[in-house]
């Protein structure tokens, strides 16, 4: 008697899901209306990706057509990520790793496994020219527009560079339009920072830009504090249609 009851119950449990499944599959086809998406791209607008880099390649050739490995950290990335120093920025570049900086007293990196000189550390460029000669002081991001990294032996085009590649720092340039911004930041370990970016024309042929920053922070270690102050003025003089003179502090 018990065997018959068990067999009847088992058959019923098997049939019920099949009936429910067959009932659920009977649906009517629904036709959706067409959706049209229209967007206008602005080629002059900065974004996370740049298509050209004249300061690294020395040509106007698009990076897609360049047989070199170039990675650019744009101004939008710097602002959106809240980067305040060069080492924070290069953490997002593949092939670059931090080296011993003796507690943050200088910038020290390696590119594709090649580090710099033991005394002067890695060689870097600023706007296409040699930047560090001797002491490689830590750089603040207050006046950095973008960072371009040319990887591989192509960095030999710039003279005294590392076999792993070249780092080129592009600074913010004066503009003939008034643009002013003030930024306040706060974070862990009593981190406080204020910065200002001011630019505009002084005359029809003369423009300025001033980047200032003040930073104070402690550390996860006891009895360690640091202060940083940045004042970076720059001036642009349009001598004529084909000549201009730029001063960068």
From TrEMBL:
Q: Which residues form the signal peptide?
A: 1-22
**Xref: InterPro entries:** Beta-barrel_TonB_sf, Plug_dom, Plug_dom_sf, TonB-dep_rcpt-like
- SUPFAM superfamilies per record: Porins (SSF56935)
Output the PROSITE patterns linked to this UniProt entry: TONB_DEPENDENT_REC_3
Cellular location of this protein? Cell outer membrane
Q: Which domain of life is it from?
A: Bacteria
Which keywords does this Swiss-Prot/TrEMBL entry list? Answer: Cell outer membrane, Ion transport, Membrane, Receptor, Signal, Transmembrane, Transmembrane beta strand, Transport
What is one GO cellular-component annotation here?
cell outer membrane
User: What's the main place this protein lives?
Assistant: membrane
Q: Name one GO biological process term.
A: siderophore transport
The Swiss-Prot or TrEMBL record annotates one GO molecular function as: siderophore uptake transmembrane transporter activity
Question: Which family is this sequence assigned to?
Answer: Belongs to the TonB-dependent receptor family.
Which PANTHER family does the entry link to? FERRICHROME IRON RECEPTOR-RELATED (PTHR32552), METAL-PSEUDOPALINE RECEPTOR CNTO (PTHR32552:SF90)
Q: What is this protein called?
A: TonB-dependent receptor plug domain-containing protein
